[in-house]
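subagent[fold] <- orchestrator: predict structure for attached chain, return tokens only, no commentary.
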Amino acid sequence: MNRLFLPLILLAAGLATPLGATDRPNVLMIALDDLNDWIEPLGGHPQVQTPHMDRLAARGTTFANAHCQTPLCNSSRTSLMTGRRPGTTGIYALAPWFRSVPNLADLETLPQTFKKAGYRTGTAGKIYHVYPPEKYRAAEFDEYGPPNTFGPFPEEKFVDTPAPHPLVDWGVFPETDAEQQDYIIATWGVEKLLAEKDQDSETPFFYAVGFGRPHVPCYASQHWFDLYPEETLQLPPVLRGDREDTPRASWHLHWKLPEPRLDYLEADDQWVNLVRSYLASISFVDAQVGRLLDALEASGKADNTIVVLWSDHGWHLGEKRITGKNTLWDRSTRVPLIFAGPEIEHGHVTSPAELLDIYPTLVELARLEGPEGLEGHSLTPQLADADAPRPWPAITTHNASNNTVRTEDWRYIRYADGSEELYYMAEDPHEWHNLADDPVHAAKKAELVRWIPPYNAPPAPFSRARLLEYQDTRVFWEGTEILPTDPIPEIEEGI
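subagent[fold] -> orchestrator:
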């Protein structure tokens, strides 16, 4: 074969030829914490103001139907960074750190793939749930900036919630943006990007910057609250009696948590305050995203830098009678996912996508070789054409054997005890009407059931915090048995 034609044949076959270091794109990864679809590109709240995420979306591709693999920080981020589903690793809870599990210790992570390819890597804030233990850090990233702390904190909490926790709070604080840890994290990213302007090295960079907001405590300075006047604030739509057609197993997923129920918010007149605080926190962290984007432009490297922005999972603000995450509904699983950069078209994709897809997508865009065993699917076809077909649904798992399947128009949930939910999202976007027992939809349900993972690994050793376990017919929440007659905390037992 004439070697002059080999590169063209490889490209035609979709097998890109390896690039030299100077040809490879840089990567800027921006992560948000507990951010649901309340951003302008997704339209989750009609009043939210996120101009910087909006301008990122305007020059890239927004995945409007993207979902996390598990609605909890540690497990979601472990899944994204390792490219494995929680049902594969057994990482379902807030602990353990995955490398402390013997059969997971040698997994190659996303930053390691780029490090191995010669990229300069650095991180700040919350990318993993917390920074890796000291002995693992050098293997993950070359450089570490300021960590996430969710700080600063007032001398006393503003809100007395039923299950006291130092993070579950909201209100106007601190006086200036510069006091916030997220501002400090953004400053590290800004300085790293501006330094690239004078960087002599031809080696590309992979920088991962993770922010703590809008995770509680939902603190922001007054000027962010001013964007959302209390007298005109719109609360999320809720249906009274919404959970009368959902199984008791749905409560098991968030049985007893520090995040309060809607009943408390209404009884203590805190619902408006929390929604306003969450929106203010979103606009504050959007401004930090804007600072990074401005620095990238000023660095002169924007044209050769892939930017990917994501959140680890969503957050309820009264919907389904709860606040927080830990559910298999859209409010908890649907997340922002935006790509922008070279060879990425402007588009709005409505077919399902998963956070699990970020790893293989970045590998393909940088024309690297990823490890075997990645369970996501590259999104590069959709980055070139938003209407490109995608045969896979999004699958979310929350603790072993609680799984949901999300397509463009449908959601199916099956809990560990076999109980089910089915929603026609095209007509019921709030998931108010469970159709699982309606024989009219039996064929659709059977079609979705085939996507439920046939096996979920048991919880990894040393799993703890927000861990739900089924042992035969017995149910255990964080090690304590839930009896069939136990009242639902803060609902049936009162506040």
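orchestrator: received. Logging for downstream: The first strand starts at residue 26 and ends at 33. The chain has one domain: 25-397.
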